[in-house]
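Researcher: Batch entry, complex prediction.
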Amino acid sequence: MTFDQIMQVALSGLLMGLIYALVAAGLSLIFGLMDVVNFAHGELMMVAMYAAFTLWQVSGLDPMIMLPLVALLMFGIGMAVYRLLIARALAVRFNKGMVQIFVTFGLAIFIRGAAQMVFGGEFRAVTGTVLADRSWHLGGVFLPWPQLAAGVVCLLAFGGLYLVGRTEFGRALEATREDRDAVALIGIDRDRIFSLGWGLGAATLGVAGVMLAGFYYVSPNVGANFALIAYVTVALGGFGSLMGALVAGLLIGEVEAVTAQLLEPSLKQVGMFAIYLAVLMFRPRGLFGKI
Amino acid sequence: MQNAITLRRRRELITAAILLVLLIVLPLPFHDPYTRNLMILTLLYAALAQSWNILGGTCGQISLGHSLYFGVGAYVSTLLFVWHGVPPWLGMWAAALVAGLLALLVGWPCFRLSGHYYAIATVVVQEIAYLLFLNWDYIGGASGVYVPFHGQSWMNLQFRTAKLPYFYVMLGFFALTWIAAWLIEGSRWGFSWRAVKDDVIAARSLGVRVFPSKMAAAAISGGLTGIGGAIFAQFVGYIDPDSILSGPLSILIALPAVLGGVGTLWGPLLGAAVLIPLRELSSTFLGSSGSGVDLMLYGALIMVVALLRPQGLVSLFQRGGNGSTS
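Model: Structure tokens for the complex:
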């Protein structure tokens, strides 16, 4: 294997890892805030991808220009999901954990069905954008522009999440996470923080979904695979940790790229799953997990 | 107090006996294969959910990867049958043994994880197995295994077109899982496992050995699920990783118990009796056009039942209704 090939694998893994990391960050944020694992996470990302696709089809404009719009839309959807379903799931008195799992799981199936109804089962793709089919040649390494742009935007989004964490709202998020009952005493509306948290989590998915739509086919089932990787990433990094999501996402991306190189491509996920199980043997709460 | 429990348990046994008689005559008036097929599937998922419930409901360890035991059980008995002519009646016990041992093997590392970490680990282990089976050409890989037809026989559990024998085999399987759950409920194990479910730390301080409890629950739950896989393989005559070792199947194994009532004796049957016909009918009448309406209905049902009846549909039948279901 030449140096160029090694660099190629490493950089491809890095770019994909950034997307995984951002998808996982949204999941981790919601979990850290209220102990709820969103099993419809992949399907919400699929909604963002279809939103990008539809806006592109209607307007002809590059999905990247639409990014703020899709993120805003997803913010609203996230808040609506919280208000309509999650708030109710948090209020039940029996089998709380089980209800949360299966309510979000039911939502996932519902969204998949709705996508099937509106868009049909075919694979769809955004084509003919400015970046499409171009790549950057760096020595012998070849990096497609859509993936590069996605990587950069994901990094920026991580920076954004970090900055949000330092605002007044971010501190309220952190306080609510620490003690969800005590915050009421200092005038923080827990319900409002939770719903904004869901909005923020879904908006990060909006960013990831739009960037992914630039080089990945959209179909009603596209979410399932990304969601599984997101759960693994979050558990590997530690639930609730932003840093954990970033590190674990990059690790998963690299391991996937290397496994695909060494084993058959159809086995490329075995490597990341094995690494995940191995790490959990030594750190049952993930690399950066506290809760 | 002890008396009240004995009385309740005896009443449950009598209810079960009456229900068994009703279920034996149930398929007789229905002659079309579609209806009988529906009944067979309902019993299958009721039995699988009953098996899942032993680990997920009684012991509180939410496994979202149970199709692993189902799939491995199906492969064990089918390959024994295809390669060595071992009759499925023996093969299903081999399946139970292998699936039970596998559950111990999976449990050994995974039971050190708690809550969501455990649930996600079970999904991952099952996905690894799925990918490996998909690429393992020696046992058929992605193209699966056909079960050759050796002529109509009870010995081989093969019947050309008749559905009724499979119905009774599934009924027997369901009865087996129910009896297992009933025995566990009244045994020392049942008390320990429920204690582990309710509060691990309190259970440990009362002298319950937490890790062995989880392992025992996993072995029994996995073993019973493996038997289901063995019977299912003879019923459909063809197995491949997508149909018997997949993520959606894992959820479908757990769902009837969750909707019917987690940790209850009758929840799995009730949940399956609602969920499976609805799922099958909606996919037959609404799903054929590929419109997705069937999925929307299925998803909505799960959300509504989980939110409105978090203690399960079985609570609708409980008088007094103090909510204690376990």
